[in-house]
């Protein structure tokens, strides 16, 4: 009987050891490891960053240079509108600017010497006419006193003399006006008109440049909404672009660990794929408002725990970091010890 009891006791002891070290003990060790590592691991997703691209002017599409799925660089041409109407507007604006420049130059230069000479000659002609009219009046006045001519003749001579005097004054004023040059108010008005014309020219050139749609940043074309020949309205979406660089990761940190995360902190970002590589990231933004953990984020904590949203910037992402995919963010190891 003793021979049978001993093996049973040994088997029971071995089973207990296996149960302890492979069951609760292993679970306890895993929980302890998770507890120690939980504070240096964050879970989140790559932010979906898209831009709806369109023209600031309207027109007919004459060229569509890219298709869905194409990788484009900043400044790449995506599409073009028929720009002939905008080229014509530029030519009209340029002509108006040139005309106003000539007018302003004429005002600033003042009258030409020949114009002044012409006005002086006209003044001298009127002076001579005045002298002749005065002599005629004197003769008529003398003859009237002698009774040779009628009062009507004297009145005609008087009127001719007065008209000649007025014409002399008019000619003298015209000569003096040419000598003074252009009025400052006229020059200021011409300068203001020229400024407005130049602004209109800049606007026309801007509209001409806007007839070409370029990429604001590096990215991938997600959708092509319009095709060649379509009439596109101002601001209508022609392409949807997925922005690829830099990559923003949206992660969440629990309130007890908030003191160990700060803007500028360097972290490691890893995708959940089998070939996911580690990428250098930097904490760029921490939300000042607490919120409940979003359901799309998988964390070891309860869903009702309050967390703070982080934005982590990955400056040089790889092709395996795609928008919307879940990622793991590993904080520096020293934070794990300080968080406990």
Structure description:
- The chain is an alpha+beta fold and 340 residues long.
- It has helices at 2-22, 24-38, 84-109, 113-146, 151-180, 184-209, 334-339; strands spanning 41-46, 50-54, 59-64, 71-72, 77-81, 212-214, 219-224, 231-232, 237-243, 247-254, 266-271, 278-286, 291-292, 306-314, 326-330.
Write the SSE topology.
Blueprint: H1 2-22, H2 24-38, E1 41-46, E2 50-54, E3 59-64, E4 71-72, E5 77-81, H3 84-109, H4 113-146, H5 151-180, H6 184-209, E6 212-214, E7 219-224, E8 231-232, E9 237-243, E10 247-254, E11 266-271, E12 278-286, E13 291-292, E14 306-314, E15 326-330, H7 334-339
Antiparallel strand pairs: 1-10, 1-15, 2-9, 3-5, 3-8, 4-7, 5-6, 7-9, 10-14, 11-12, 11-15, 12-14, 13-14
Helix pairs in contact: 1-2, 3-6, 4-5
Task: Flag low-confidence runs.
Answer: 1-7, 16-38, 335-340
Q: Kindly, what is the distance between the CA atoms of the first and last residues, rounded to a whole number of angstroms?
A: 54 Å
**How would you characterize the largest beta sheet?**
6 strands, antiparallel, barrel
Chain-averaged pLDDT: 80
| String of helices and strands | HHEEEEEHHHHEEEEEEEEEEH
Q: Using the CA coordinates, give the radius of gyration.
A: 46 Å
- Classify the beta-strand content into a percent band: 15-25%
| Share of residues in helices | 40-55%
With helices defined by DSSP (H or I, 4 residues minimum), what is the helix count? 7
Strand order of the largest sheet: 1-10-14-12-11-15
Principal-axis shape equals rod-shaped
What would you call the structural class?
A: alpha+beta
How many beta-strand runs? Answer: 15
